[in-house]
From TrEMBL, chain B:
Organism listed in the record: Roseococcus pinisoli
Keywords: Amino-acid transport, Cell membrane, Membrane, Transmembrane, Transmembrane helix, Transport
Chain ranges passing through the membrane: 9-30, 36-56, 63-85, 97-120, 141-161, 192-215, 227-251, 271-289
Top-level taxon of the source organism: Bacteria
Annotated membrane topology: Multi-pass membrane protein
InterPro entries recorded: ABC_transp_permease, BCAA_transport_permease
Protein known as: Branched-chain amino acid ABC transporter permease
Chief place where the protein resides: membrane
Compartments where found: Cell membrane
CDD domains: TM_PBP1_LivH_like (cd06582)
Recorded family membership: Belongs to the binding-protein-dependent transport system permease family. LivHM subfamily.
Length: 265, 297
C-alpha cells in the first residue's frame, strides 16, 4: 500500500446549529487521484475548505505528510505543498494571466523588498529567470501560451478554469485540491481538463483531490472515490466498489426513492 | 490679465497638487489593500512632521539623518496602528472601522497638541537658498524637493506594484483575500505592510508641508483635502489618486485667481474642489479611474 499523504480523522464542522460535516475520516495516498462525490449540500466543498484552511474543523484532526495542520492558517499551508482551485472562478480579473500565475509563486520568491531594490546587484535577476522558466513550462503544459498577456477577466470560461489551474500548479504543490474543475464545461473542454489532471498526476507527480459532479469523468480518472451525504461519509473505495455500494445508490442515484415509488404504486 | 501670476498659480497648484496626490496615493493604498477608509491620514502627516521637527530641533540632527530616522519611526508606527487598532476590527462592520479611524484622528490630533503645543513651529532652514528663480517664476527650493520626492514616490509605487513580490501579493489580496491566502500570501502581513508604507509616504508629505509653512495641527487639514482628490480619481485607483490630487491642487489655485480677479467672494480656494467633485461624480459616478461594480442579476 502506498504512503498516506493526507489523513483526515474524525472531522466535524458546525456552523451554529448546522452540521456541515459529521465525523468524516479518510486518507489520501501519495500519487493517487482521489475524488469526493455526493449530492449538492453534502459538505464536499466544506471538506476541501477544512483541508485548505479556510474553515477550521470544530472537531477532528487533519494531517498532511505526518504534520498536524488542523490549526495552521491557510497562508502557511501553501508553502507546505497544498494548492487549490475554487468552485466559483477566483482569478484576479485585472491582472494578466502571467501575473496571476506569478502570484502563485509568492512563497517561492525569496527576494524580499530590499533584495528586490538592488535587483541588478543581487541574485534577484537569476532567480526571476528561473521562475519565469518554470512558469513558462506550466503555460506550455496547459496550452495557454496565446493568452499569457491578456487580462484574466476577459477570457472565456474554459480558459479561465485553465488559468486557475495553472496558478495552483505554480505553487508546486504536492497535493492539489480541485473544486469542480469541470463544472460548466462542454465535452471538449472536459476532455482536455481530464487529460491535464491525469498528466499532472502521472508526469508531474502531484496527488490530486477532486470534487466533481460528472460521474463519467470521476469513474474514469479516479483511483479512489469517497461519497458524502448530509455531511457524513457513506462509502469510499475504488470507483467500482463505490458504485456497487447500496447506500450510495440510494443517496446519490436515488434508487431507493424509485423503488419506494414503485412499491407504493 | 496677469499671465505671469496665472502661470505662477498653476505651477503652485501642480506642486501642492503633487503633495495632495502623494497623500491620496497612500490613502488609496490602505483602502485597496484592507478596505479601510482612513480618516486619520492627515494625522499621519502631522505626526511625521512633528517627529521630524522634534529630531531636527531638539536633537539637532542634520536633515539627512533626522529625515530617515523619522521615516523609520513611521514604518513602525504604521504597523503598530494596524496591529493594535485595525486588526481586531477585521470582519466588523465598515462603520465601526470608520469610527475607529475617526477616533484615531481625534486622538492623535489631541496628543500632538499636548506634546508639541498649539502654535506653529518653523522648521530649521534646510536649504541654503530659500527661493529659486526658474524661467522668471519664483519657486521655493523645498517645493522643488517636494516635486522630486513626489515623482520618486510615484515611480516607487509603480515599481512596487508591477515588479515586486509583495506588490503582487498586495494586488492579489486587494482582489480576493481568500484566494490570496490559498496561494500562500499572509493577509495580516500585507495589511501591516500597506499601513506602514502609507504612514511613511504621508510623513514625507507632512515634512515637506512643515518645512514650507511650519508644523501645526492645521497641517492635518490636508487629510480632508485628500477626500475630493481620492474620490475624483476613483477610490481604488492609485494613479487616479495622484491625478485627483493634481486636479484639486490646480483647481484651488485657479479658483483663487478667478476669485481675486473678478468675483471677490473670498474663500473660493477651499470650496472649488468640492464643486468640481460634485460635477465629476454626476458624470462619472465611480470617479475618473475607479472600478465599476456592475452587478449582474
Amino acid at each position: 500500500m502506498q504512503e498516506v499523504i493526507l489523513a483526515v480523522e474524525g472531522v466535524s464542522l458546525r456552523f451554529g446549529g448546522v452540521r456541515a460535516l459529521t465525523d468524516v475520516s479518510f486518507e489520501v495516498r501519495r500519487g493517487e487521484v482521489f475524488s469526493i462525490i455526493g449530492p449538492n449540500g453534502a459538505g464536499k466543498t466544506s471538506m476541501v475548505n477544512c483541508i485548505s484552511g479556510r474553515y477550521r474543523p470544530t472537531e477532528g484532526r487533519i494531517s498532511f505528510d505526518g504534520q498536524d495542520i488542523t490549526r495552521l492558517p491557510p497562508s502557511r499551508r501553501a508553502p507546505l505543498g497544498i494548492g487549490r482551485t475554487f468552485q466559483n472562478l477566483a482569478l484576479f480579473g485585472h491582472m494578466t494571466v502571467l501575473d496571476n500565475i506569478m502570484v502563485g509563486r509568492h512563497h517561492l520568491l525569496k527576494s524580499g523588498f530590499l533584495r528586490g531594490m538592488v535587483y541588478w546587484l543581487g541574485g534577484a535577476q537569476t532567480e526571476e529567470i528561473a521562475h519565469r522558466r518554470e512558469v513558462e513550462d506550466i503555460i506550455d503544459f496547459l496550452e495557454i501560451q496565446h493568452i499569457r498577456k491578456e487580462p484574466a477577466g476577459t477570457l472565456s470560461y474554459g480558459l479561465r478554469k485553465r488559468v486557475e489551474l495553472a496558478r495552483a500548479i505554480a505553487l508546486k504543490p504536492r497535493l492539489i485540491l480541485l473544486d469542480e474543475p469541470m463544472a460548466g464545461m462542454n465535452l471538449e473542454e472536459k476532455e482536455d481538463m481530464a487529460r491535464f489532471i491525469l498528466e499532472l498526476n502521472q508526469e508531474w507527480g502531484m496527488t490530486v483531490l477532486m470534487i466533481e459532479h460528472d460521474m463519467g469523468v470521476v469513474m474514469d480518472i479516479s483511483s479512489r472515490v469517497m461519497v458524502l451525504d448530509f455531511g457524513k461519509k457513506i462509502a469510499d473505495g475504488t470507483p467500482d466498489e463505490v458504485l456497487a455500494h447500496p447506500q450510495v445508490r440510494r443517496a446519490y442515484l436515488g434508487e431507493d426513492l424509485d423503488e419506494s415509488v414503485e412499491a407504493a404504486a | 490679465m496677469e499671465w505671469a501670476l496665472l502661470l505662477q498659480l498653476v505651477l503652485n497648484g501642480l506642486i501642492v497638487g503633487a503633495l495632495y496626490g502623494v497623500v491620496a496615493m497612500s490613502f488609496v493604498l490602505i483602502y485597496k489593500a484592507s478596505q479601510v477608509v482612513n480618516f486619520a491620514q492627515g494625522e499621519f502627516m502631522l505626526i511625521g512632521a512633528w517627529v521630524c521637527w522634534w529630531l531636527l530641533t531638539k536633537w539637532q540632527l542634520p536633515f539627512w539623518i533626522g529625515f530617515p530616522v523619522c521615516l523609520a519611526f513611521m514604518t513602525i508606527f504604521g504597523v503598530i496602528v494596524q496591529v493594535v487598532v485595525l486588526r481586531p476590527l477585521i470582519g466588523e462592520p465598515v462603520i465601526s472601522v470608520i469610527m475607529a479611524t475617526v477616533g484615531l484622528s481625534i486622538f492623535f490630533q489631541a496628543l500632538m497638541k499636548w506634546m508639541f503645543g498649539v502654535f506653529a513651529q518653523p522648521f530649521p532652514p534646510i536649504f541654503p537658498a530659500e527661493r529659486l528663480s526658474l524661467f522668471g517664476l519664483q519657486i521655493q527650493s523645498v517645493y522643488l524637493l517636494s516635486l522630486a520626492l513626489s515623482a520618486v514616490i510615484m515611480l516607487g509605487f509603480w515599481w512596487f506594484f508591477t515588479f515586486s513580490k509583495h506588490g503582487l501579493a498586495m494586488r492579489a489580496t486587494a482582489f480576493d483575500q481568500q484566494v490570496a491566502q490559498s496561494l500562500g500570501v499572509s493577509v495580516p502581513k500585507v495589511f501591516a505592510m500597506s499601513w506602514a508604507i502609507s504612514a511613511v509616504v504621508s510623513a514625507v508629505a507632512g515634512v515637506v508641508v512643515g518645512v514650507v509653512s511650519g508644523v501645526s495641527s492645521g497641517l492635518s487639514f490636508y487629510g480632508i483635502k485628500v477626500f475630493p482628490a481620492v474620490i475624483l480619481g476613483g477610490l481604488d485607483s492609485i494613479v487616479g489618486g495622484m491625478l485627483g490630487g493634481l486636479i484639486v491642487g490646480v483647481l484651488e489655485n485657479l479658483a483663487q485667481y478667478v476669485d481675486a480677479q473678478w468675483l471677490n467672494w473670498g474663500n473660493m480656494t477651499n470650496i472649488a474642489p468640492f464643486y468640481a467633485l460634485v460635477l465629476i461624480l454626476l458624470i462619472k459616478p465611480y470617479g475618473l479611474f475607479g472600478t465599476k461594480n456592475i452587478e449582474r442579476v
